[in-house]
Specification:
By secondary structure, this protein is α/β, with parallel strands linked by helices. It is built from 10 helices and 13 strands. It is globular, with a radius of gyration of 18 Å.
């Protein structure tokens, strides 16, 4: 079947090594859209941090952000779908993490913005301009911080892969635990990932999965690449991603997605 939709991860995939769109990629996206193929971004990023970086490519009409927790319509400037971690699940998740990792640092995101606990603020970069207006520095309180798109959990004692494996094994069934290339684990709600967000968008738009080409490079892209009619991994993608891909191309440093788009 012909390609009707391109869906792409951002960092490590569509963005260059500087986490920005190159002119070459913007030109390829515009040409792809002009040919009638639609374009959606699917990212672990919040729509807040993705939007300024996607501004040079106005043909990208939708962002499946926060690992699928929030679908943002770029033209409308509004969420079309939000899927939060169940409020009753939050205390369970946090109790498990604090019990296993007393030095765990937490960040979290809701529709209103981000929040960070004191350890995160002391040891990690954060973007205060993206904070929830109601956020005040203090410990993460699952009884007060509700309606969360995702939790970010980080511990200096463990490397990313080790942390992800240990955390995933302990999490309840009604959350999804993944990584996006950063050195922290990202936890979303029941069944919430990039694949489910893109699938829901496609169903609403009448696009079959066989008509979708998806690009990615990290663990949070695996289900999306498996779901799409054709899943494409970057040349420097995690080995687990390459193992499930239908095709492997070059790297973001080589504008490999742009070169692929030229052939659609």
């Amino acid at each position: 079947m012909p390609v009707r939709l391109v869906v792409s991860d951002l960092d490590g995939t569509l963005f260059g090594p500087d986490h920005q769109l190159t002119d070459r990629t913007c030109e390829a996206i515009a040409a792809t859209a002009a040919s009638g193929v639609r374009f959606v971004a699917a990212t672990g990023r919040s729509h807040r941090t993705a939007l300024p970086r996607l501004a040079p490519a106005p043909s990208i009409e939708t962002i499946c952000a926060s690992n699928g927790s929030a679908t943002w319509d770029v033209a409308a400037g509004a969420f079309t779908v939000t899927r939060c971690i169940a409020d009753e699940t939050l205390p369970v998740v946090v109790d498990i993490l604090r019990s296993s990792f007393p030095t765990m640092a937490f960040g979290w995101e809701s529709a209103a913005g981000f929040g960070w606990d004191p350890r995160w603020l002391e040891e990690r970069h954060h973007s205060p301009e993206h904070a929830d207006p109601a956020w005040e520095p203090g410990e993460f309180d699952p009884d007060r911080h509700r309606g969360l798109f995702k939790i970010m959990a980080w511990d200096t004692r463990l490397k990313m892969a080790e942390l992800a494996a240990v955390v995933s094994a302990q999490m309840p069934d009604d959350v999804v635990c993944t990584t996006s290339g950063a050195d922290f684990v990202e936890i979303t709600g029941d069944g919430v990932d990039k694949a489910s967000a893109v699938a829901a968008w496609c169903e609403a738009e009448g696009i079959d999965r066989s008509e979708v080409v998806a690009f990615g490079d990290q663990h949070n892209d695996i289900t999306m690449l498996q779901w799409a009619g054709h899943g494409v991994a970057m040349g420097d993608a995690h080995p687990d991603v390459q193992a499930i891909a239908d095709e492997i191309i070059g790297t973001n440093a080589d504008d490999a997605v742009a070169a692929y788009l030229d052939q659609i």
